[in-house]
Prior knowledge:
Elements: H1 2-19, H2 41-65, H3 86-96, H4 111-126, H5 133-137, E1 144-148, H6 151-178, E2 189-191, E3 197-199, H7 205-208, H8 213-217, H9 219-227, H10 231-238, H11 243-246, H12 248-255, E4 263-267, H13 273-280, E5 288-291, H14 301-314, E6 318-324, H15 336-348, E7 354-359, H16 393-407, H17 424-431, E8 438-441, E9 454-458, H18 494-506, H19 514-538, E10 542-546, H20 551-554, H21 559-573, H22 578-587, H23 589-597, E11 604-613, E12 616-617, H24 621-634, E13 653-657, H25 659-662, H26 664-674, E14 684-690, H27 711-732
Parallel strand pairs: 4-5, 4-6, 6-7, 7-8
Antiparallel strand pairs: 1-9, 2-3, 8-9, 10-11, 11-12, 11-14, 13-14
Amino acid sequence: xxxxxxxxxxxxxxxxxxxxxxxxxxxxxxxxxxxxxxxxxxxxxxxxxxxxxxxxxxxxxxxxxxxxxxxxxxxxxxxxxxxxxxxxxxxxxxxxxxxxxxxxxxxxxxxxxxxxxxxxxxxxxxxxxxxxxxxxxxxxxxxxxxxxxxxxxxxxxxxxxxxxxxxxxxxxxxxxxxxxxxxxxxxxxxxxxxxxxxxxxxxxxxxxxxxxxxxxxxxxxxxxxxxxxxxxxxxxxxxxxxxxxxxxxxxxxxxxxxxxxxxxxxxxxxxxxxxxxxxxxxxxxxxxxxxxxxxxxxxxxxxxxxxxxxxxxxxxxxxxxxxxxxxxxxxxxxxxxxxxxxxxxxxxxxxxxxxxxxxxxxxxxxxxxxxxxxxxxxxxxxxxxxxxxxxxxxxxxxxxxxxxxxxxxxxxxxxxxxxxxxxxxxxxxxxxxxxxxxxxxxxxxxxxxxxxxxxxxxxxxxxxxxxxxxxxxxxxxxxxxxxxxxxxxxxxxxxxxxxxxxxxxxxxxxxxxxxxxxxxxxxxxxxxxxxxxxxxxxxxxxxxxxxxxxxxxxxxxxxxxxxxxxxxxxxxxxxxxxxxxxxxxxxxxxxxxxxxxxxxxxxxxxxxxxxxxxxxxxxxxxxxxxxxxxxxxxxxxxxxxxxxxxxxxxxxxxxxxxxxxxxxxxxxxxxxxxxxxxxxxxxxxxxxxxxxxxxxxxxxxxxxxxxxxxxxxxxxxxxxxxxxxxxxxxxxxxxxxxx
Length: 739
C-alpha cells in the first residue's frame, strides 16, 4: 500500500511538471542519453555512468541503513519513537517533491495553508478554544501555533516571547515619556493584577515588569487605537528602546540599573533545551532556577513556592515557569494544575509570570480526553478537508457513529472513555493545558510523524508579535507573511506541515484517532510495568524495581500491602491475554483501579535490575550499576555496525539519576528501594522502556505471540540479558552464585 500511495504521489508531481507550460522545451531529448542512438556518444556514456553510480551508491546507502534500530518492531522498547504513520510518510514525500519553503506564503502557497490548518488542530487538541470571527471581533483571544523543526526550538521561542513580554512595558513607558510622537499616550491606563486600573506612567519598575500578560500583549494595539499612532510608528520608536533592538545589557543599564535580571524556573530533570534557550536569548544558563522533584520525578510545589518567595523578597522578576508534561526519561507529568493555581496566588502578591507546558513528548496524549467533534471553520483553509464539516445528514451520521464506537463500552481494548488508561492525577494536569500561556508539542514524537516536526502553540496568538522579524527581501507588499516571520527559524520544509496535515486528516486528534492509538500505548506500557514484577517473580536470581511506585507505596502502605499489589500485577495481570484481562477488569474493579493507577504517567517505564548471590541481595550500588550497564550494552546499538541487521533480541535505552540533578534524597530513596546502599554524590544507572507500539499485546497469533501477545517474548529477552549480566558481574568480582 505504501508503494502504491508513493507512486500516486510521484505521478501527481510528474503530471504537475508536464501540465505547466507544456510547450516549453525540455532540458534534453531522450535520444541524447540513449547510448545506441545518441549523436554525442561521450555525453550518453557519461549519463549511463552517472546513472549506474547513483544506483550503486543507493544500494550502498540502503545496506548501511540496515544497521539501524528496527523502529517498527515489537522489540523496540527504547527511545520515545516508534514507526511513522503511513499518511505521515506519504504526505511528507508528496510535498517534498514540490520543495515548498514555509518561510513565506509566496514560497509555499499550499503548505503554509496546511500549517495554519494543522496548528489550529494542535491548539484544539491541547485545550485551546478556536473562536469564530465574530467572537474575535468581540474581544475573544485567538490561539495560534506554528511548526518548528523540533521541541528545542519551540522551547527557546517560548523563552524569547516571555522575555520580550516581561520587558515591553518598561520600553513603552520610557518611549511615551521621551518621544513627542507618543505624547497622546501619556494618560494611558492599564489593568493591574488586582483588577484595578492605574495610569501607565505612574507605575514603578516592579509594577511594569509584573503587568498581566494579556494586558502587556494588548498594549501596542490599545495605543494605536486610542491615540492614532500607527503600529509602524510605534515599531520605529521602539527601535531605540526595546530589548529586541538594544540588547539585554544596554536595556538593564539604561532602564533597570538596580533590578536583577528575570529568571526562568523549571524542574531539575528538564530538557537541556532550556539552559540552551536562555543562553541564546542572552540571559545565560544561570538564569535558570531548578526546582527539585518529588519521589515520582514531578516538580515539587513546596520548592517552587520557596523559589518564588525568594524572588519576591529580592525583587527579582520571574519571566516563565515551565511544567514538563512528560519527561523524556521518566514520563513524569508535572502538576500543571497546581502551578497555575499557585500563579493566581502570587498574582495577588503582585508577581506575574508566564506558564509554559513543555509537552514535546506528552502533548498528543491530550487526544485521549477529547471526544470526536466536527469543527466549523471560518478560515480560508477549511476547503482542504471534507472531514471537518457536517453539512449533510451523511456526515452527521458518520460523526454520531464514531462517537458511539468510542463510547459504547469502557471495557474494550480500544475504548478510551475519557482517558480510562490515565490516572486521575494525570487527567487533572491535561485538563489544565488550555490555561498555559504557551505549549510545546512534537508531532514527530507521539504524533508518529517523520522528523523534523515540532510545534509551539500560544494561548493568546498575538503574543507571537512580540518576537516578529520581517525581512523585506522575502516579504513583498501585500503578501501575507504568515508563519515565517515568527520564531527562530527561517527556511523550513513545507513537507513537515503536509505530513502532519495528512496524518491528522486520517487519524484525528481525538478519541477516535490519536487518542485510540495512544490509549493502546499506555495500556501496553502498564502491561509492561506489570510484566516487570512477573519477571522478578519468575527469576529469583534478579530483582526489578521500577522508579514509578505502586499505589500502595505512594500511599505509605505496609510491606504486605505493597507485596500484594506486586502479586496481583505479576500473577493476575501480566500472564493474561487482553481478552482475559478485560474480563478480570469487569469482574474485579479493584484490579482495574490498580492497573489504571500503576505505571508511569504516560508510556515510558523506568527501572533498575539488581542480582542475588549466595549471600543474598547485592547491596553495592557500583555492582548494580555495572549490571544495568551490561544489560544496556546487550540491548542497544552503540556504534555503526557495518550495515548488518542488529542481532539484539530487544532494544532499551538508559540514563542515570545524578544527585546534582535529582537531589541526593531522590537518589538515596530509589537506591534503597532497589536494595543497595546509597553513596553521597554517586549516580544510579537505570534502564528505560518506551512502549509506543499500539499492537504490542494484540498481534497476529503465531508461535512467538501466544494469544496474540508479544510482550512475554520481549520480557524473555530482557530476562536473559539480566541473568547473563548478573552472572558476569558475579564472576568478575569473585562472588558466589546463588544456590
